[in-house]
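Explain my protein.
***
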Amino acid sequence: MTLDTSTLRVALAAVDLTLLLLFYFITFRRTRSTYSGSWCLALLFFLAGNAAYLLDGTPQQVWANPLGNVLLVAGASSIWAGARSLRTTVPAFWYLAAGPAITAVASALDQPATNVWSGVRPI
C-alpha cells in the first residue's frame, strides 16, 4: 500500500493549524514570550510551506516549489531562534535569513518547473 502524498500534506496542514492555534491562543497571547512567538511563526511557516508543495505537478510548480523550500527552512530557523531565546538572546536577522536565502538560490537554479525536488542533492 502506498500513501498519497497530497493527503499526507493536507493532514499535516490540519495538525499544523491546530498546533498554531493552540500555541497562539493558550501560550503566546498570555505570555508574549519570544520562544512561544518563534514557535508560532515556525508553525505558520511549516503550514504555508506544505501548502505550497500541494501545487507540485501543476504549472504553478515553478514558483511554488522554491517558495515551499524557503518557507520550510525559515520554519526550521524560527525553531532554532526560539530554542536559542531560552538561553541567550534571539540571533540577528541575517543569521535567520541566511538559510532561506541560500535555499531560494539553490532551488531556483535547479529547474523547479520540472524538478519537484529542486534544490535538493542526493547524498
In short: The helical segments are 5-31, 34-53, 61-85, 93-109. The chain has a mean pLDDT of 87.
